[in-house]
Amino acid sequence: MSGMHVRPMLERIDAYPNQWISGFGVRAGRPLPFGATIVPGGINFSVYSNNATAMTLVLFRRGESRPMAEIPFPPAFRIGGVFAMTVFGLDAETIEYGYRAYGPYDPAEGHHFDPGRILADPYAKLIGGREEWGAARTAPDAEVYRSGVAGDDFDWESDRPLNLPAEDLVIYELHVRGFTKDPSSGVTAPGTFAGLVEKIPYLRELGVNCVELMPVFEFDECDNARSDPTTGRPLYNYWGYNPLGFFAPKASYASTGRHGMQVDEFKSLVKHLHLAGIEVVLDVVFNHTGEGNERGRTVSFRGLDNSTYYMLTPEGYHYNFSGTGNTLNCNHPVVRGFILDCLRYWATEFHIDGFRFDLAAVLGRAPDGSLLSNPPLLESLAHDPVLRDCKLIAEAWDAAGLYQVGAFPDYCRWAEWNGRYRDSIRRFLKGDLGMVGELATRMAGSADLYLRRGPAASINFVTAHDGFTLRDLVSYNDKHNENNGEDNKDGDNANNSWNCGHEGPSDDPEVSALRDRQVRNALLILLTSHGVPMLVAGDEMGRTQRGNNNAYCHDGPLSWIDWSLVDKNADLLRFARCAIALRRSHRALRRDRHVAETPPEGLFPALSWHGVHAWMPDWASYSRLLAAMFYADDDGRHDCVYVAANAYWEGQTLELPALPDGLAWHLFADTAAAAPHDVHEPGREPPLADQARAHVGPRGVLVLVAHPVPTKS
Amino acid sequence: MSFDAKMHVADGAATLRLVGELDRRSAPRLNELIVQAAARQVNRLVLLMDELRYMSSAGLRCLVFAHQKMPRGVEIVLIGTRPEVAETIRLTGFDRSITMEDSVETG
Questions:
Q1: Cβ contacts (< 8 Å) between B27 and chain A: which residues?
Q2: Per residue, what are the HEC states of A553-572?
Q3: Are the C-beta atoms of A554 and A176 separated by less than 8 Å?
Q4: Which of A122, A422, A509, B32 is least enclosed by beta carbons within 10 angstroms?
Q5: Cβ(A652)–Cβ(A695) below 8 Å
Q6: For A26, phi and psi rounded to 5 degrees?
Q7: Which whole-number Å values give the CA distances from A115 to A277, A282, A312, in the listed order?
Q8: From CA A422, how far away is CA A495, in angstroms rounded?
Q9: B57 and A93 in contact by Cβ < 8 A?
Q10: What are the residues of chain B with a beta carbon less than 8 Å away from any beta carbon of chain A?
Q11: DSSP state of B11
């Protein structure tokens, strides 16, 4: 094409081929960055393998099953362990590619080279071949994931990561597909990034300001050999904790994935969430890949450089600290670089606000699996210049028994999913003895675990995707995972749940009322505690998984959000919305330092404890009642929230801490009251008639706020 | 794979009729016309889309290019966009800086 050059420029002298291979003009490429990069005149391909003896680039026309060309890397195009080649005249939009890696097949030495396979690029920004969710794999391309080249130009307008203070966050964990796939969602593009955009008004109204997206990297949802024993239907790997492409947004999560536009659609989602004041945290899985153990499939890493990417035993088998068959060798310098490159890509190209690391304890292990005291990967992430403002959240345990909650190598930078918080709040709520002191410690931001880092290092939660929903937590004593096809052996046995007197659904009005109350109790404790609260999508509207506490394999009504619950459980949703709004309107609940580190601010201590008598908490092992009073001097305004939690089966009358003249206690929430009197909009709470005493119901939580005495005019 | 674009400037409006498939190969041609339209200092850019069968990722970027190339305040209107193309524009969020209209106004 003889295009008209508006502004003639001096062109690079390397923008032309100097060799021809297989009909394509090529020249020696640039080894960095890894991956496929659009350069003047062509595409630069760079791939690392320490042990490959040779490499071939395989090119496809998008959508065609047979390669259009295979271009071996000439020996001179290899620098160190990197094969790099620029190929000219390729249309980045219409080609796909992969690699054949040549080398020894010697499993005992950790080598699994097989040039018969076409391997995906670990740095692929797009992955083609699986654009339709759940589509049957078609032979002979069963194992072929096609790498693609994504344009990185996007109209971000003025968007940038929001950088909200961590202690101000209310995190909402959701599954991109499950959030809108059910027809009740009413969106035009169900189960996709675009579908989620249509639900942003709901998120805004709910009041959350951070969504944590369960895995969105390309994974294989069909990677599950089991079927549901009750229906015979195939089961899925629905959650997606089996990544195959760490740089590629999952194609079938984009309604435009069939056109290869998943990158644009996902960026559009982030931009719209940011416009609504909502941060985006990605749940990232760097502890393992979806390639399984040595008998598993080979998509990319195993075929390119098994002994670099995976932790291997001396005999060449995979270590299995992740419980999924393999463990990514994440403290190997090359793999560490891969992870850093990946996170920087998501932070810079997608404006991601933070990351939650699945089974993060694995990331502190050495290549031989031993525990490192100063893990290079975690240190690098903590101090990375590009990631400085990203939230880093560790799931601080792994599947091999390593439990690091409160002891994760944090560099004063990492936050953690606080598993202790979850367990303690659940046990208090179901009435276990000896939990009052523990409740106080958890509500105060777990200073025993995070004093050095501050309360925002504690991601507080009562439920997460992994485990019972909040509704099921109060409806089931035991897990009911029969539909998962593993004889109910999968899933956690230690749920600290209580069914309120009947296992499963119940028509008994007393059981129902108690469940409603327990759910509200949990929400109030969670949303008033110091630290960062996390909710699971659907808990605010009473979602059930019918007692399944490990629904990873279900792609259907069991795991999708049923939006008819918005109306059916409107009272609960209103309650949750108000509880979130309460947190957001009281600085006393959102401390960035623990109260022990907080200088006195005037009227009251930043946090004080009370019991049946004001200022006299009962720490006895038989006590099931505790009241907390949070206080802050908010620009001269007395910000004061009183939270009484009673896990005893009888109600109790509480002496209230006396307020100074001009201030009066107002009732925000009383979970023993029937809706709509169970909660009041923040700022519109009615004053208490009796300012000296209040009643907390049986197994109830009472929340009061101090406002100026209403003046009668 | 074919693409054709013709521009007509009148009454302060540049009207471009797009025909065929707009992808990475054809996008430079459209961008060139957009640069010309910007140079003519029009206050309205109209894209007649009813004969455009397909718009790729690179094609979508022409819309952003137009938005950024035209002076602030210039309205960019897409008329008669086929449903499949319109859907792609909307789902990928490229509709934020343009106006979509159903059909050419008569008269």
A1: none
A2: HCCCCCCCCCCCHHHHCHHH
A3: no
A4: A509
A5: yes
A6: -140, 165
A7: 49, 34, 22
A8: 10
A9: yes
A10: 23-25, 28, 32, 35, 56-58, 60-61, 64, 67-68, 87-88, 90-94, 96-97
A11: T
> In this structure, what are the phi and psi dihedrals at residue B16, rounded to the nearest 5 degrees?
-115, 125
Q: What per-residue confidence (pLDDT) applies to A712?
A: 62
A220 flagged as catalytic: no
Question: Would an 8 Å CB–CB cutoff place A90 in contact with chain B?
Answer: no
> Cβ(A454)–Cβ(A413) under 8 Å?
no
The strand pairing partners of A127, in sequence order, are A147
Q: What is each CA distance from A108 to A23, A41, A271, in whole angstroms? A: 39, 44, 48
Amino acid code (one letter) for A231: T
Catalytic position from the list A121, A131, A218, A358:
A358
For the segment A93-145, what is each residue's pLDDT rounded down to a tens digit? 999 999 999 999 999 999 999 999 999 999 999 999 899 999 887 655 545 79
Nearest to A490 by CA among A480, A477, A505: A480
Residue A655 bears catalytic tag: no
Q: Which residue in the set B24, B35, B67 is minimally distant from A6, CB to CB? A: B35
How much is the pTM? 0.96
Q: Letter for the amino acid at A632? A: A
CA distance linking residue A621 with residue A483, whole number of Å = 40
Could you give the ipTM of this predicted complex?
A: 0.89
Q: Which residues of B touch A256 (CB under 8 A)?
A: 88, 91-92
Distance CA A238, CA A552 (A): 5
Q: Which residues of A touch B35 (CB under 8 A)?
A: 6
Tokens of A336: 């560490």
Neighbours of A21 (CB within 10 A): 18
CB-based contact B32 A92, cutoff 8 Å: no
Residues near A431 by beta carbon (within 8 Å), at least 6 away in sequence = A498, A624, A647, A648, A649, A699
